[in-house]
Amino acid sequence: MVDVERLKKAADEFKMPNSELKNMAEAFRYDIVSGFEQPLASTLRLLPSYTNLPDGFEEGCYLALDFGGTNLRILKIKLMGAGEYEVLSRVEKPLKVEGEYDYIGEGSSGEALWDFVASLIDEANGGDRSVEIKLGHTFSFPTEQTDIYNAKLITWTKEFRTQGVEGEIINDQLKAALERRGMTNVVPVAVINDTVAVLLSAAYENQKTFIGSILATGHNTCYLEDFNGQKAPMIINLESGNFSKIVPNKYDSILDAASQRPSEQRMEKMVSGKYLGELFTIALADALKVEKLVEPFTSVDLSEFILAEKSGAEILKKHTGEDFDAEGVFYARDLAEIVVRRSARIIAASFVGTLSHIMGVGLVIPQQIAIEGTVYAKMPVVREALTEALYDILGGDAARLEIKFITDGGTIGAAIAAAMTD
Ligand code: BGC
Fold this sequence. Notes:
It is globular, with a radius of gyration of 22 Å. Helices cover about 40% and strands about 20% of the residues. The model has no long low-confidence stretch (mean pLDDT about 95). By secondary structure, it is α/β, with parallel strands linked by helices. Helix 1 (about 5-10) packs parallel to helix 11 (about 325-360) and helix 11 (about 325-360) packs across helix 13. It has helices spanning about 5-10, 20-35, 110-125, 170-180, 195-205, 250-260, 270, 275-285, 300-305, 310-320, 325-360, 375-380, 380-395, 410-420, and strands spanning about 45-50, 60-65, 70-80, 85-95, 95, 100, 135-140, 145, 150-155, 185-190, 210-215, 220-225, 235, 365-370, 400-405. A hairpin with a 2-residue loop joins strand 3 (about 70-80) and strand 4. The protein has 14 helices and 15 strands. The structure holds beta-D-glucopyranose. Beta-D-glucopyranose binds next to helix 5 and strand 12.
């Protein structure tokens, strides 16, 4: 029979009391400030986006490419201003289909990847080769930008491995692929991070939005920096998934050591969809005193297990091979929930750190924080835990914040970025 004391002990590893949350928020704020002044003291990257917020009047027809998660999405969009838009066509395909193709795994090449992307852009644009159309590109990885077009991939994250893209100007590679297909009428004009896209698309409708965030396969946040009025405001991509001033528990350390890039993206490895299932798997295996589970949990499995009312024991049996009684299921679910709750609490603390940099510690101006992503949308526990943690840190002032769930931000934002170059 399963030892529930070991399950409780594993769950304790993921507790994050209010004092720790507040310390993390302060450490996060410190890393934003020091990121500008002494970059080596900061674990945030603070990447300039060369984009301000939209004024909401952007109009016209654009192609929008959203690249960076499991699915590639291309939309042809007509922006009509005042937050209004119409989707004219939509093409969506995974970057990897087991047994069929894989553009992101070990043996994949940049050229093949961009040729695939170009073929889907072609489909979204109805094969047209004559009308010039601008393309906005949401590229959800850390890039070093020198302007809105030129973005060099610093490093893959989320376990992407395609060869020949790191260190390259990604829009040049896309452009070359478009040329290979004779699609010279499609003109890439802007590259933005997905957090920036979410912020643009939310601010297109509601000007009181200064922070954009993603909680999906990966995690990251951006915000509008006003440089104290010394320079024009610009959205800064924090690459907050790389924040590493949170004390890892023993399961975080095991996961990190086994990952493609140990010691990088430490916060992302504690919060995002790529890793939550794995974290639970490692913790549960430890509680059961086994080296591996029969079948590891993905984040989707984790979400199903938390939601399952009656079939908890069955799900656990399938993944662990062990029999759980009602008490065992209860504490295993408790462990699953706390893995997710900690994710939301960490993200809330990073929001508060960002807010206190923007507004000054203790000052919360009413606003919405825009967030998009499958984990935020679908994972149980996340929404309540995020709101609860904001109250734990800010007290009643948290009521001035609205967490706004965005859909299609990656693509709408890309179209807005393209329009903003006009
Ligand atoms: C990337 C970020 C991205 C985030 C969400 C992270 O792995 O480094 O650039 O915004 O995932 O997609």
